[in-house]
Amino acid sequence: MEDPNMIKNAVSGQDAMFSPDNLPPIDNGLPAIDQDQNNSITNIDRRLRVLEERFSNLHRRSQVSEQNVLKSQKDLTKEIKLSAAEARELKMQIHDIREKFRILVRNSRSLRNMSTYGSL
User: Fold this and answer.
1) Alpha-carbon distance 96 to 86, whole Å?
2) pTM score > 0.70 for this model?
3) What is the dihedral of CA 94, 99, 103, 106, to 10 degrees?
4) Can you give the pLDDT at residue 24?
5) CA-to-CA distance for 78 and 40, rounded, in angstroms?
């Protein structure tokens, strides 16, 4: 029968036979990476993260800009509609005033004609 401490030591990593120092290197078919290559990969990874953050910031800024443009366009459209409605109202008022002047001119001509014929 095996020693229970041996199993306990193997599981906990205290057994010399199973310690990381005694394990053979894993051959995954890829060449080993030296320290310079590892540093280069780490540097590239760091730079990539910085670029991703910058891109994310630019994307947020562009979204805010687009939202501001849309809001400005909506406000401008509303102002144009209000101005057009005011212009239509003003045009109708001018038309009413012209009609009243025409009626006034007709009435004054009628009165003048009546007074001219009445004085003869």
Assistant:
1) 15
2) no
3) 100
4) 62
5) 57
